[in-house]
């Protein structure tokens, strides 16, 4: 028996993962003819006696001691406590793997550790062994990294081929360190996500990073949030966007880009064909900057997410954006919270947005939180919302909405068939009557699945339970619709595409055509009968109208409309639909597909969900 086997049994008894230690003959021979071992001061130093002692010689005790030492080194690396280990111990651990790739260090989360230069050198050495350590995620945020400490890590990453996510946010990175970042981005071909948020990178740093990204073809996500780019830095970034073809997510929030910087970004959006998400929070965009971005959106066809909170665009700026979106069909999400929309009772922005949502396909989600649109603005926003067929999520938290506003929302929800998430959090003037009106509307609405409200009135629990009951019903109903659609498709695929059926249609020269007659007559034939072979053959000779009624009888609770059933049956007999995904099938059947999972929100729906908002953007 090899000593690897002994160590494996030892690790299993102790609940410790095995390390790749070399084999030994002497230990195997000892185990084959065991004898009582001598006491070992090395083993006793660990303070515990194990039942395997009777199998071990002095060499065995040294092996066990080595095992515990290596295991302890590995734990220190996972925790980031490099000050507890030496370079020799790190080398010993790496050698123990014998060239076998391990997933022990796949994710290293080193936040708030204040790493010293000596510790950074050990980390750099670990990164150099990338073929063995296999590190994918490296989080070094909040370590006050700068100077030589940062340089040794970035130099090691130049040759590293496994790290794909690198977080250097909340450090002390300035223009001086940016030259090493530039070299890293020019040479590294594995990093796909890089966060440099909340550092001190200025204009010169933006120049170096942008120059490197003109060459880099692997980075897809970059966050430069809360640095010191200013106007000139924004121009360097815009020049990069005109050339780069791989960057998809860019966060430039809180960089004081101002009008000239925004002008450069807008010009880049006219020619860029890769960027899908752009964050421009707190950049003093104002009305003039919003018009520049709006003009760019009439040309850009790839951007799907645009974040513009805290830029004071007002109603006039929102009007520019809405007018541009009439010519845009790609923008999915628009975030304009904290922009003084509706201030002093102005409803122009809300009215224009309402008309856009009434007649157009974008956006699919909008965040209007912390804008004083009030009840009058809310009424203008929802006047034609019952016609909307695409908006899935709307955030109206902290919008000073009263009873009249919530009444307009409730009336629209009675007919609207698409909205999935609605946030009305922190609108205290809605009152008990407003909550009851909304609950009454949900009795008719069968699509809305999430609502954020404040229940701060008497009998709030009863109203809350009533609303939650309707929302739960909607979730279950949507699940049943999807299940029934897939069940009918499966049965139709089997019974309308058999060899017997093809022979019959060929001999009679009668093409299959799904009729649009009423599906009021429904059969009680069970699934097992429908899918049995004799029935399938007989099924082919039935008139098409009878075939239809048998298939749609699988919808026992009649949750599908006649139009949806027709689409399903037509889909089932077309050869070009074979191999299509379930998502594509459900989108074609229902007009949209809403995943029934915990992450049903396509984006945060609560205005105070800041952590999720930043994470989703990055």
Automatic annotation (TrEMBL):
<dbReference type="InterPro" id="IPR032675">
    <property type="entry name" value="LRR_dom_sf"/>
</dbReference>
<dbReference type="InterPro" id="IPR052201">
    <property type="entry name" value="LRR-containing_regulator"/>
</dbReference>
<protein>
    <submittedName>
        <fullName>17257_t:CDS:1</fullName>
    </submittedName>
</protein>
<dbReference type="Pfam" id="PF13516">
    <property type="entry name" value="LRR_6"/>
</dbReference>
<keyword id="KW-0677">Repeat</keyword>
<dbReference type="InterPro" id="IPR001611">
    <property type="entry name" value="Leu-rich_rpt"/>
</dbReference>
